[in-house]
Amino acid sequence: MSLDGFVAGPNHTMDWMTGTAFRPGLVEEYAGTTGAVLGGRAGWDACPDPNGIYGGAWQGPLFVLTHHPEDAQPTPGVTFLSCDVAEAVRIALKAADGKNVEVFSPAIGRQLLERGLIDEIDLHIAPVLLGDGIRLFDNPGGAPVRLELLTGEDRTAVVDVRYPPATAGRSPRTSSSPGN
Ligand SMILES: NC(=O)c1ccc[n+]([C@@H]2O[C@H](COP(=O)([O-])OP(=O)(O)OC[C@H]3O[C@@H](n4cnc5c(N)ncnc54)[C@H](OP(=O)(O)O)[C@@H]3O)[C@@H](O)[C@H]2O)c1
Q1: Secondary structure (DSSP) of 30-65
Q2: What kind of fold does domain 6-135 have according to CATH?
């Protein structure tokens, strides 16, 4: 997600992720704990490739929710579902066989959150501001949804992050930590 809360740019673009780095082991961790992926039709149509999930590190059942499965291109490993979101989760959980179902869709995530069917929102924030695109949680007029922070002692804690604007040619800053 971008720092300002977008998970995709305008028209589902993802090129803003180029040049960002995940912590070592993160992709392997998610590839190992994910048993099935549930996504929406817009995300699928923007990138109809089941082999690109976690950069190709994950293979498994992918479910795509749509109101019109009849015009979707049949693709091995992909099941197009047209059902209630709760039913889609039930189907995906069964396929996940004890592992996690990752919801790769803010639109579906929002519906599942309303139904109490999201266990965790797991975010990796990229150092970029987009200003436009697909929001993590687009719910105009909705009430705030309170969350609990799972890392650290205080579940109500605000997370502090500091970012200067990137400047071409700026040397990487050094950081100090106890013992340095
Ligand atoms: N940054 C990241 O790590 C990350 C992760 C995941 C996803 N993304 C991005 O997030 C974007 C997804 O955008 P989005 O959430 O706006 O769209 P989306 O969920 O991918 O697609 C929305 C479509 O899904 C179908 N749908 C949703 N709820 C449904 C329901 N209850 N029943 C039947 N069909 C339903 C509908 O398809 P029909 O119109 O066919 O009925 C709807 O138009 C993509 O660009 C993707 O790349 C980014």
Answers
A1: HHHHEEEEEEEHHHHHH---GGGGGGGT--S-EEEE
A2: Dihydrofolate Reductase, subunit A (3.40.430)
